Amino acid sequence: MLKSKLITILAFVVIFAAGASVGMVRHTQINPKKHHGPFDELNLSEAQDTQIRKIWDDVRKGRPSPAQWEQIDHERDARIAALLTPEQKSQYDQIQRDHDLQREALHKQMESLIHEAEGKTRAVLTPEQQTKFDELRKQRSNHRPPFRGSRRGAETQPAT
């Protein structure tokens, strides 16, 4: 039951991400001047645009790094591991391995959907639009951390 809920939720996230990706490209084609998301509708002056861009650039610079997220996952897993007997550790590790395989399969499915959607999108675009689309994709991929397959920290160790 939990497994099917997790798969359903992750599938929804994958589909939503693919739709958002295509939507961002379409939005950029319609309104190439600005790209602030919710601020587009505010008709900002150049000064306001510059100030708001700086505000959100500072937020991006100050957000926690992937390493910080991984560290707290590692600490959580170590605390859980301290509670487990050797038999429980073995069961827990199998659940983690199964989970990792499911995440990897969903990630591959998401990559395939996005790759297919990008190809279909390029087929609709003019050569100039294709060039811009490719630039946007490259910028976007440079800001995204690589997929690691697992969201957990270290392997568990049995309680002593």
The unreliable regions are none
Supply the helix-strand structural class: mainly alpha
Q: How much of the residues is beta strand, in percent? A: under 5%
**How many E-type strands?**
0
The residue fraction in helices comes out at over 70%
In whole angstroms, the N-to-C terminal distance is 32 Å
Number of helices in the DSSP assignment: 5
**Overall average residue pLDDT:** 78
What's the alpha carbon Rg, rounded to whole Å? 21 Å
The coarse overall form would be flat
Largest sheet: none
Order of helices and strands: HHHHH
Your description of this structure?
The protein has 160 residues and is mainly α. It has a domain at 2-32 and 64-142. Helices cover 73% and strands 0% of the residues. It is built from five helices and no strands. Helix 1 (2-30) runs parallel beside helix 4 (86-124). It is flat, with a radius of gyration of 21 Å. It starts with a helix and ends in an 18-residue tail after the last helix. The relative contact order is 0.14.
